[in-house]
Specification:
The chain is an alpha+beta fold. The chain has one domain: Inhibitor of vertebrate lysozyme, Ivy, CATH 3.40.1420.30. 27% of the residues lie in helices and 35% in strands. The protein is built from 3 helices and 9 strands. It has a 9-stranded antiparallel β-sheet, covered by helices on one side. The termini are far apart. It comes from Formosa sediminum. This is Putative beta-lactamase-inhibitor-like PepSY-like domain-containing protein. Keywords: Signal. Pfam families: PepSY_like.
């Protein structure tokens, strides 16, 4: 009976180890590395100090997935930034108003004119468009040049 129990336990542990190893990414092509302050690229620290000068980086992570590199940065002001492999910001998620300096000028002008009582809390650059989210839950889409496309109410 003890042999059956040991075999069962060992089989369970082996299966659990296999499941855990495979569950992080089905194709095995994802790799996340926590960065130290010294490992964070200068372009990213410069961006943070320029646009979020009262904030500090609390967590930095480099992710490689299918040969695509991104940097995920968390600031102490509850702001998350994502940078591509060229150290260009592609996403900014916040809980309060983002600095005007991080919003493309035409988008900022559109929001200020058409939503004067609201602020931008999130900005994202997609392949074919840009999107901002306002503090009222509205999502506005713009083309890559900053021309308004459509409104999406959450």
């Amino acid at each position: 009976m003890k042999t059956v129990t040991k075999t069962t336990v060992l089989s369970f542990l082996a299966g659990l180890t296999f499941f855990t190893a495979c569950s992080s990414d089905d194709d095995g092509n994802s790799n996340e590395v926590l960065l130290t302050d010294d490992d964070i690229p200068t372009e990213i620290t410069t961006y943070v100090s320029t646009h979020f000068d009262t904030s500090t980086i609390t967590r930095a992570e480099k992710e490689t997935e299918n040969s695509k590199i991104t940097y995920d940065i968390l600031l102490d002001l509850n702001v998350e930034l994502e940078f591509n492999s060229d150290f260009e910001v592609t996403e900014i998620d916040g809980t309060s108003q983002l600095p005007d300096s991080v919003i493309p000028e035409l988008i900022l002008e559109y929001v200020t004119t058409n939503y004067p009582n609201n602020v931008i809390t999130d900005w994202e650059l997609e392949t074919n468009y840009q999107q901002v989210e306002l503090n009222n839950g509205y999502e506005l889409e713009f083309d890559l040049e900053g021309e308004f496309i459509r409104l999406d109410k959450d």
